[in-house]
TrEMBL record:
Superkingdom per UniProt: Bacteria
The protein's name in its UniProt record: Dimethyl sulfone monooxygenase SfnG
Source lineage: Bacteria, Pseudomonadati, Pseudomonadota, Alphaproteobacteria, Hyphomicrobiales
An annotated GO BP: alkanesulfonate catabolic process
Ranges of residues in domain Luciferase-like: 38-333
Molecular-function annotations in GO: alkanesulfonate monooxygenase activity
Keyword Oxidoreductase among record annotations: yes
Keywords: Flavoprotein, FMN, Monooxygenase, Oxidoreductase
InterPro entries tied to this protein: DMSO2_SphG, Luciferase-like_dom, Luciferase-like_sf, SsuD_RutA_monooxygenase
Signal peptide location: none
């Protein structure tokens, strides 16, 4: 088992992001009480709490149809703009799905929001996991790797439009001739995130994305992904930043935190969890390697949409802070967090956990907690 190379480890302070609950039902497919709301008033206040609590980013979600508890879904770009307008420091990451969005509209829309918010907008290019959603909105459901080929062209086009004076591009999905976007975004352009963990996702990240978002996992399994991606990125003279999902349950005692997770799972809606699992496993199986984000997810894992329990940020603030340092040691630059009761738990996390992480970072604790990539 190889230790994650030093060059793959971030040397900047870890960044923190939270999932914007712009979709109803929260981040778990469970009937447990959730003091979280998908509406704008709740979300504006949450964004203000999050930036005061030390969060750097907020990630909005894009969904076009109901399902698995997500009865209502606000659109990601307009919602992200509203959150940026209600805050001063937070960067809001808007999810974009190639297909419904094309790069021309996305680049123009995001460049304007970039000006309106002093550069506090970023994008998360997602590639689709739910064939029923595509069918409902009349979008062709391309093969898994074709979806990624399109996403890669989408990202190349976005970056080209944002940075080149006169942009020409001859892709299979998108074409431009001497296109000049004015005004260009500032600082220097919105950061480009992507979500997904398949071979195609990793290869795309190594070539074109600024950030790679992946589902929850152990530090050892994350280290394996990081080493793989960074080795390929280095061939292109790049380093990709890494963000990992986690569902955080921080309580005064570990027993209390575990009891919350047990209750979330006990109150899970089995039909909805199984239907979600079926859909996402099928989407992954369609990739050439027959895997994907959720290939090894159990029923319990699937109760949280993006395997957030696997990251195990469940326990006391001290336990969570130490596990976050392990993630940093595995090569993670950003931890993306979901919560049960967002407003109160984001505030608690900022007060109790982030300062401990900063203390451990100041002590150089990463160096004393080596992480070995899983074989
Ligand atoms: C952090 C994160 C956020 C995501 N957000 C969305 C989203 O808002 N909308 C969506 O349709 N898919 C979203 N996805 C799904 C991915 O785009 C991708 O389709 C899925 O992870 C399967 O990819 P894979 O086959 O490469 O593993 C997200 C994935 C991750 C990891």
């Amino acid at each position: 088992m190889a230790e994650t190379p030093q060059s793959n480890r971030p040397n900047e302070p870890l960044k923190f992001a939270y999932w914007v609950p712009n979709v109803s039902g929260g981040l778990v497919i469970s009937n447990i009480e959730q003091r979280t709301h998908w509406g704008i008033d709740y979300n504006r206040k949450l964004a203000q709490i999050a930036e005061a609590a030390g969060f750097d980013y907020a990630l909005s979600q894009i969904r076009f149809t109901a399902g698995y508890g997500a009865e209502n879904q606000h659109e990601s770009v307009s919602f992200s703009h509203a959150l940026a307008a209600a805050t001063e420091k937070l960067t809001v990451i808007a999810a974009l799905l190639p297909g419904p969005w094309n790069p021309t509209l996305a680049a123009k829309q995001l460049a304007t929001i970039n000006h309106l918010t002093n550069g506090r907008i970023a994008v998360n290019v997602v590639s689709g996991w739910f064939s029923g959603e595509f069918r409902a909105i009349g979008e062709p459901w391309l093969d898994h790797d074709e979806r990624y080929r399109r996403s890669e062209e989408f990202i190349r086009a976005l970056r080209g439009i944002w940075t080149e004076e006169s942009f020409t591009f001859n892709g299979d999905f998108y074409r431009y001739r001497d296109y000049s976007l004015k005004p260009k975004p500032v600082d220097p352009h919105p950061e480009i995130f992507q979500g997904g963990s398949s071979r195609a996702a990793r290869d795309m990240a190594s070539r074109v994305s600024d950030w790679y978002f992946t589902n929850g996992n152990t530090p050892e399994n994350i280290a394996r992904q990081v080493d793989d991606i960074q080795a390929k990125a280095a061939e292109h003279g790049r380093r990709v930043k890494i963000g990992v999902n986690a569902f955080a349950v921080a309580r005064d005692t570990e027993a209390e935190a575990r009891a919350v997770v047990d209750e979330i799972i006990a109150k899970a809606n089995p039909d909805a969890v199984n239907a979600f699992g079926h859909e996402v496993k099928n989407a992954g199986k369609a990739s050439p390697e027959g895997e994907g984000n959720w290939a090894k997810s159990t029923f319990e894992d699937l109760v949280q949409y993006n395997d957030g329990f696997k990251t195990n940020l469940i326990g006391t603030p001290k336990q969570i802070a130490e596990r976050i340092i392990d993630l940093k040691q595995a090569g993670v630059d950003l931890v993306l967090l979901g919560f049960l009761h967002f407003q109160e738990e984001v505030e608690f996390f900022g007060r109790e956990v982030i300062p401990l992480v900063r203390e451990l970072e100041a002590q150089g604790a990463e160096a004393t907690r080596p992480i070995h990539a899983a074989a």
